[in-house]
Amino acid sequence: MSKSSMRSNEGKGALILLAGGASRRMGTDKALLDFDGEPLARRVIHRLHGRGEWEPFIVANRFHPFTEWGWPVVRDPWPGAGPLAGLVAGLQASSHDWNLAVACDMPFVSRELAAVMYQSAVVESGSDAVIPRTGGKFHPLFACYHRRCLPVGEALLKNGERSLQALRSMISIHVLDEADFPPSIDPERALFNMNRPSDLKRARKWK
């Protein structure tokens, strides 16, 4: 997909759904796992897209079946290089300044928390990213990234670096701590991601 196919200046920004992982620990493609009657990746977009605040597109290693869902699909040009590669591919395709990146394996992502991150991004205009943190742990796969991160990410990939932690160390970030979350949000659920069958079992009990 070319940049020209992205509509600029609509809503808050782009919603970059990262669906290119190998899902080795899960044993099956997490993006297509049935969760409460729909594929997990599509559920994540529906939870965040809401009334059209974000312009969604999907970063994946293949187009089928994602193109059937009605959102643009961007092929990851660095398959197997991890989430940093997916984020960079998304930023390359986006025409927006601010972009909400989210992993496809987070069934309870919060639109309210996304809105708070975006507002923090606007207020903290000198920051390159807004990343939530709970219990001392950063959550870079549900975070807002400015396009200023793109050349840094590209340089890291060119040098063989795949770590989002490396990106974080080279950009200016605003940390959204748990104390800054809206009181209605359960941080454990909102930032819960599934890597193993046991995680899926736990998440299905939460429904």
From TrEMBL:
**Binding annotation for GTP:** L18, A19, G20, K30, D76, D105
UniProt-annotated location(s): Cytoplasm
Keywords, A to Z, come to:
Cytoplasm, GTP-binding, Magnesium, Metal-binding, Molybdenum cofactor biosynthesis, Nucleotide-binding, Nucleotidyltransferase, Transferase
Domain of life the protein comes from: Bacteria
Q: Where Mg(2+) is bound, by residue?
A: D105
Show the InterPro entries listed in the entry.
MobA-like_NTP_Trfase, Molybde_CF_guanTrfase, Nucleotide-diphossugar_trans
Spell out the molecular function terms from Gene Ontology: molybdenum cofactor guanylyltransferase activity
Swiss-Prot/TrEMBL catalytic activity? Mo-molybdopterin + GTP + H(+) = Mo-molybdopterin guanine dinucleotide + diphosphate
Matching SUPFAM superfamilies = Nucleotide-diphospho-sugar transferases
* One protein family per Pfam: NTP_transf_3
Co-factor(s) = Mg(2+)
Q: What is known of its domains?
A: The N-terminal domain determines nucleotide recognition and specific binding, while the C-terminal domain determines the specific binding to the target protein.
Output the PANTHER family linked to this UniProt entry.
Answer: MOLYBDENUM COFACTOR GUANYLYLTRANSFERASE
Q: Which family does it belong to?
A: Belongs to the MobA family.
Protein function: Transfers a GMP moiety from GTP to Mo-molybdopterin (Mo-MPT) cofactor (Moco or molybdenum cofactor) to form Mo-molybdopterin guanine dinucleotide (Mo-MGD) cofactor.
Q: Which HAMAP family match?
A: MobA
Name of the protein described by the UniProt record:
Probable molybdenum cofactor guanylyltransferase
